Structure formats: C-alpha cells, structure tokens
Amino acid sequence: MVTGYAGWQVEELRREQARLQAEYEAYRRLNLKLDMSRGKPCPEQLQLSNEMLDVLPSGEELRAEDGTDCRNYGGLDGLPEAKRFFAEMLGVQSSEVIVQGNSSLNLMYDALARALLFGVLGSEQPWSRLPSVKFLCPSPGYDRHFAICEQLNIEMITVDMTPEGPDMDAVERLVAEDDSIKGIWCVPKYSNPGGITYSDETVERLARMKTRAGDFRIFWDDAYTVHHLTSRHDELKNMLEACLNAGNPDRVFIFASTSKVTFPGSGVAALAASRDNLSHLKKQLSVQTIGPDKVNQLRHIRFLKDMEHLGRHMEKHAAIIKPKFDLVLNKLETGIGSKDIASWSKPSGGYFISLDTMDGCAREIVQRAAGAGVTLTPAGATYPYGRDPRDRNIRIAPTYPSLEELAQAIDILCVCVQLVSIDRILADQ
C-alpha cells in the first residue's frame, strides 16, 4: 500500500489538499497566539528555583568559604565553591575555571571580541588586524552564535552536522588549508537544534587535527550538559582533557551556565580552559571588571549545593518538559509520519527538536503557521546569515507553551507541512 504523498495520484492529492485547507482555515478563525520561537523554560520550571531567593538571610554576613565578603569588590575569577561546582559539572579542575556573570552567551561574545582586539594566547597579532577572520559553523546550529559572528564581521563557513557531530572530513580539510579560519562553534551535547551528542571520535579529531592557524580555538558551548530528558544520559568525552592529550592544551574554551537550571535572566556562567589560557584571560578581565556578582554565585551554590542535588533538581525539570517532547514527537509521527515528507530528531536531552521538511518548503511552512497564529523560529535561523541552502530546517522549541497550547501548535504545524509539501509535489508533476 502506498502511503507517502509522492506515490499518490493527482486527484487524491487535490482532495487531500482541499481537506487540509479547510482544516487550516478553521484554525485561522480561532485567532490563536501560540509562540514556539525560543527555547525558554516555562513558568513551572522557573518555580522550581524560587527557594533560591530565600537562601541568603538578610541578617548574616555573606561570606564565601574562604572568608570573602561577597557584597564587596574582588574575586575576579569567582568564589572557590562556585569554581569547584562548575569544575565538577564540566569534569575539569577548579584551577581551570573562572566563574563570572549571568550569561554564557556574554562570555562567548566577550571572548571573541577580546580575540579581535588583542588576539588569544599564542596570537602573533590581534585578529582584527588580519585581512579576514573566519569561523566554522556546524549547521543546523545555534542562531545566536551566528549572530555574534555576523555583528563582529567574522566570515562564517557552513559545515554539515552528522549524527556524530560536525562533518570532520570537511572540518579537517578546511582548517588545514586556511590560516584565516580561527575557530569553530560547537554545541557538543544535546546540540541546538538537533539534540546530537558528539562521538568520542569527533572529540578526539577536533582535539588533534592540524590547523594552519596556530591560534585556532574551539568555542565549546556546553549549554545542555546536565539537561537530560531521561535516566539514560548521553556521555560526552572531555574536550579539555582530549586537547591536553593531543598536545593542544590551549585549543578549547568551554562555556556553561545555570541559565536554564535556575533563572535564565539571573543565572551564573563559567568558562573553563587551560591554566595558561585563564592566566592570559584574567589579565584582560582585570581591566574590564573588579569582580563578578558574588552574591548571586553564593546564592546558587547554597541552593544547588553539589552534583547530587543538581541531579535531583534537573530530574524535576525533566518531569515537566519530557511530556512536552513526547507530545511533539507523537503528534509528528501521527500527523506526518506516514507521508514521507519530513524527518525529525528524537533527542535525549536539551531544549529543541529539529524538523527537516522537503527541500524548498521550510520558509513557506513557517509563514503558513504564522498565518494560523503559531510563531516558530524563522526558517533559516539555524544556518549562518539566516540562509538554509536547502530551505528545509525548522527548529521546534517545546518547553515554554503549556501542553494544551503545544498540542494545538503542533497540529497546526503538521497541517502546514502537509499543505506546503502537496503544493511542491503538484508543482513538480
């Protein structure tokens, strides 16, 4: 029995098209406003951390374990207990961590801006004095990484993502032949948007590959390292250790934060790197700031305590959002699974589901969904410059809407995917 649309007769497709269009118009008349454009925690997730607001009694001196008064200046690289917490979370040493403000994206932006102004450890000159600076961008990827490069006038080179991580044959070839390629963006665990965790081989190849640029850097955005959806956790090989073993100890900057662990607007962010990298970095930081928000660091550590408590806290997050992921996956399978018009990721963690439609359809699907009241991440956003060369990738962010809203939104999305796909099939016949 033929189930995929490509095997249907024209008359059957036109009848299906009419049925779907009527369903679409019915949704339009509901005047819905459903937003799945960003990967934000929902209110129930934020509620999990409200107790953190009460862990610092106003009557006590707010001192860290080494006696530091957290209300005052100082502590450039963060509180000792905060450094230890992030070191355990990332599998590194406390001496390889600095803990800063509320945003890892801020740390990434600053690290790249400093590289342009001053270079990195081992640079012969600031990157901004070079004829061109390029970054490799595994795609589909994180739109905010690409926005940083675009604003700082860093040329982006798209590299395809595979189930093991970036296409390493392409990465190795590019970095070996072009000394203007200074770095690569990586979301190595439960990647945005595909939910991919890099294989051990990918990590090892990134660590040991020969680069034409002597000051090449891996920007390792480990944003979802503790964001598991099930009790079976993906394992990610330690990149800092891999770089050290490969003889490239200064190659990687690792970024992480508590942004989706506690409060996205009031989290704590950290950067891990070699001791030499951090020594070089702190000389620059000492001019930029007298110290981070240590009160917030203390508040987080007293609330999250250690890896055991963090694990229990993240299980509460998973209990809230996993049913949303399950709902999306079930509805995609029920709605379009038999039509051979799309495929999607089935992540074990992170915040997104990556939907690939037929080539040339994503932008129109997103527009159709908007017409029925569903706001999605713009088509193309998961590629540099907002240009998906195949116009097929759509990032689904299930976490923020309620289950009821999410169910409606995915039903509408499935209708739009089918309508646009039928249009494309009929146009090609």
From TrEMBL:
Keyword DNA-binding among record annotations: yes
Gene3D superfamilies given in the database record: Aspartate Aminotransferase, domain 1 (3.90.1150.10), Type I PLP-dependent aspartate aminotransferase-like (Major domain) (3.40.640.10)
Coiled coil regions, renumbered to chain: none
A GO molecular-function annotation: DNA binding
SUPFAM superfamilies: PLP-dependent transferases
Key words of the record: DNA-binding
Protein name (Swiss-Prot/TrEMBL): DNA-binding transcriptional MocR family regulator
Organism, scientific name: Paenibacillus favisporus
